[in-house]
Design goal:
It is built from 2 helices and 3 strands, in the order βααββ. It has 60 residues and is of the alpha+beta class.
Length: 60
């Protein structure tokens, strides 16, 4: 599996890029919503190799 090294984005920036002329309503965090995502878990980190532009996770 390959995980690219890309910058993180705010969802408001993505919304503005997709629909710059639309009204955006901020509703806050909903129950069960994640604030952060792990692209590589601790258990996967042992099987990961770092390259310049991506990580490679070796799976069996």
């Amino acid at each position: 599996m390959f995980v690219p090294k890309i910058p993180s984005y705010l969802i408001t920036d993505v919304a503005k890029a997709i629909a710059p002329n639309s009204e955006h309503k901020i509703i806050g965090i909903r129950p069960g919503e994640k604030l952060h995502e792990e692209m590589i878990t601790i258990s996967d980190a042992f099987n990961s190799i770092e390259f310049e532009d991506y990580y490679s996770i070796i799976t069996n």
